[in-house]
Amino acid sequence: MRKKLYARITAISVTMILITMITTVAIFYNVFIEQVMEDLRTHVHILKSTETVLGYIEKDFDPKIDNLRITIIGSDGKVKYDSNANIGEMDNHRDRPEVKDALKYGEGKCTRRSDTFDRTTYYYAEKLDSGDVVRVAKDVVNIWQFIKHILPVLIAELIFATGISMAVAKLLARRMVEPIEKLAHNIDSDEVDETYEEIKPFVDKIHSQHKALKKSSMMRQEFTANVSHELKTPLASISGYAELIETGMAKEEDIGHFASEIHKSANRLLSLINDIIELSELDVMDGTMNVSPISLSEEAVNCVEMLTMNAEKNEINIATETIEDKCIILANKDMIKEVVYNLCDNAIRYNKPNGHVWVSVFRKEDRVILEVKDDGIGIPEKEQERIFERFYRVDKARSKKTGGTGLGLAIVKHIAEQHNAIINIESEVDKGTCISIEFPCGE
Fold first, then answer.
1. E strands, 2-157, where?
2. Are residue 87 and residue 207 in the same domain, yes or no?
3. Which domain holds residue 20?
4. For 366-398, how does the pLDDT look when each residue is reduced to its tens digit (9 = 90+)?
5. What is the pLDDT of residues 38-49, one digit of tens each?
6. Contact partners, residue 405, CB within 8 Å, separation at least 6
């Protein structure tokens, strides 16, 4: 990473240096050309203000001193004087652009390039009071020759600037990567070293993601260990009873009991596998699910009717307490059925003989509330935050006796999170528990 940063910073710096140098040369060359034209105009004004022009250049005047070419042209275009050529051999200049403009507008200028001599000549002409035109010309090198003259300076400047850029790029790359390298060596540390303010969010993000991954890994390891432990118990029970029957060690009158225990363990095993599969599917879900308007009231009533027989079997009275109409939510129907069922099933499972379970659905502002309340064994306050953890049981003996997998409330939590719902719990030991889930209104 450091080498890539170094190379890219250097490349950007050198590119910017080249662009700056090219732009600077172009600007200076344009300024130079403007100055040449301004000098020509000044020379013409000086010539006009003296009697030199009127006398068609005195003998002691040498225009070559300033590398100038002076030409006097009559109003008919005939050349009357030229400092660099024999006027007898010269063509009529009336159609020359700078002469034409001078005769018409009082002044004119033009640029003509000579490919033969690889030079550009700049002309400036003004009309005299006599009607003649005085023109001054000067040969100027083109931009490539201009660059050639200053090329050694440009190369020296480029080498110097590139050297400085490389040194700075190396320093910047090292300073930028240093906090990340430190983080890599101290990734498990809870504190992040001070770093540049600009990359601090990036470093913090890496650190927080590592902690999240580490926590997730630990949770998965714990989950795997718990799954293995939970599966071993019913499998060991099934294997043990089956072995007794197979070897003939079981008495005839015990076979029915053993078969019943095998059936119970098999059902517990199936419940565990189903809950594990469902949790795994919820873990990999990316938030996309099929949703539709669902009547939460209707689902609650259906669940109560379905569990009535099971509640009576456990000497529990389950009933609806408050069921309001138009309690519509946007949700996945199968998931909502699972939530209502798990909450009601837990309320029955962890209750007392002749206990009660009340199921309510009502609206509160823009939320739809599902509430399941019982007068069962309750949950100690210090354990209330943990009941949604996988395989966590408040009363382990009762859970195994009633066939609980310890995954029901973990599934409820996952489904609630998928639906942006809020879970609330109120409980008191030996007085009962009330769990409510607030769903966004779907109307």
1. 68-73, 79-82, 107-114, 119-127, 133-141
2. no
3. 2-146
4. 899 999 999 998 988 888 888 888 777 665 555
5. 888 888 887 777
6. 230, 268, 271, 272, 275, 391
